[in-house]
Structure formats: structure tokens, C-alpha cells
Design a protein that fits this description.
By secondary structure, the chain is α+β, with helices and mostly antiparallel strands. It folds into two domains: 106 residues, DNA Primase, Chain A; 76 residues. It is built from nine helices and five strands, in the order H-H-H-E-E-E-E-E-H-H-H-H-H-H. The chain has a five-stranded antiparallel β-sheet with strand order 1-2-3-4-5. Helix 3 runs parallel beside helix 4, helix 6 runs antiparallel to helix 8 and helix 6 packs across helix 9. The longest helix is centred in the middle third of the chain and has 40 residues.
């Protein structure tokens, strides 16, 4: 599939020329661990440049374009942006990782971009799971508060379920913590919710 003969001859070839031989789909799979989905004649994957939940990055043979964040470019630009390295270093890394080494280029970047991309994806996955936990906890607590507001209307209800009125304040406090923009405050809210919900 790839033209390895240029690199094998040992010609002093520009690494950009060699790097651009690798199809963009292979670059996305190798560097971003992307699951490339084919829809009709087009390929899509989750974009590694933003918190993507539905595949929004269009990939063709030579380029990519994300409909979610607008990032775009060829395979060298993809690796450069993903790994925060210069385009020249990205081209050298692609050459090294796909064994297309022109004279004078060593494999010093080999596997570094893949490891960095894997770590970035892991952090994105953890952030997504955390957001989901906060969302579920907020919905549960809001439901409890709503039930208390609508269920305790008469003095007989208050006498019978008076303990619930005391819980309402705790629920509202935890909801305020979960609604905070500060992740430390949200973590405190999650901890209190899980302790309260399990108990």
C-alpha cells in the first residue's frame, strides 16, 4: 500500500513528501487510536481536538476536517496539532513510525506521539465519565427535591413525612455544589451525594 522504495533507496528526500504518502485514515488510527467509521463513501472518527461524543471529523485520503471544532489539515498538520510539535517534527515522526526514514532523519520521535495521544484520549474519557456522574447525581437530587416540594402539602403529610423536609436542605446544598463550575467543588458534591444516596 505504501511506497517504501523511496526510503529504501536512501535518497535524501524531504520528510514532508514521504509523510504525505501515508493515508490520513492510517494516521488517525495510529496517532489518535481513532475508530474510523465508514458512512457511504466517507470516513468519520471522533475528533481528538475537542470533547467529541459523536464522530464529527471527516477523513479522506489526504486531509481531515472536523465539523465540531473546525480543525483541518493534512496528515502532517494532524500529528503536529495532536502532539504539539512543529510540522517538520511531525513529518519526521510519521516517517519514523511508518519506516519511511530519509537520510539524516532518526527515529527519536517514534512512539512518542502515539503515547501522548493515548494519554490525551484517556483524560478525555475520564472527563466524560465525570460529567456523566455529575449529571446523573444532579438529576436524582432535583427529582427528590421536586417530590418533596409537591408531596408535602398538608399538615398530615408533614407529620407523616417530616424527615423528608430535613433532607430537602441537604439535597439543595449538594445540588449547589454539583452546579459549581469548579471541579473540586463538584467532586465534593459527588462525594456527598454518593455517601448520602448509598446510606
Amino acid at each position: 500500500m505504501f511506497n517504501h522504495s523511496i526510503a529504501q533507496r536512501g535518497d535524501p528526500v524531504n520528510p514532508f513528501v514521504l509523510a504525505r504518502q501515508i493515508p490520513m485514515v492510517e494516521i488517525a488510527r495510529s496517532y489518535a487510536n481513532a475508530d474510523v467509521l465508514q458512512r457511504g463513501a466517507r470516513n468519520y472518527a471522533l475528533c481528538p481536538f475537542h470533547d467529541d461524543h459523536r464522530p464529527s471529523m471527516l477523513i479522506n485520503d489526504r486531509q481531515f476536517y472536523c465539523f465540531g471544532c473546525g480543525e483541518h489539515g493534512d496528515n502532517v498538520a494532524f500529528v503536529s496539532k495532536l502532539c504539539s510539535i512543529s510540522p517538520y517534527d511531525a513529518a519526521k515522526a510519521i516517517c519514523a513510525d511508518f519506516n519511511l526514514l530519509p537520510v539524516g532523519v532518526n527515529a527519536s520521535y517514534r512512539q512518542r506521539p502515539v503515547a501522548d495521544a493515548t494519554e490525551q484520549r484517556k483524560k478525555q474519557d475520564e472527563a466524560t465519565i465525570r460529567r456523566q456522574r455529575v449529571n446523573i447525581a444532579s438529576k436524582c437530587l432535583a427529582l427528590v427535591v421536586r417530590m418533596i416540594d409537591h408531596g408535602l402539602r398538608t399538615p398530615a403529610d408533614l407529620e407523616r413525612f417530616g424527615e423528608l423536609a430535613q433532607v430537602q436542605g441537604e439535597c439543595e446544598t449538594i445540588l449547589e455544589l454539583l452546579d459549581s463550575k469548579d471541579t473540586t467543588t463538584q467532586d465534593l458534591g459527588l462525594s456527598l451525594f454518593e455517601r448520602w444516596w448509598v446510606a
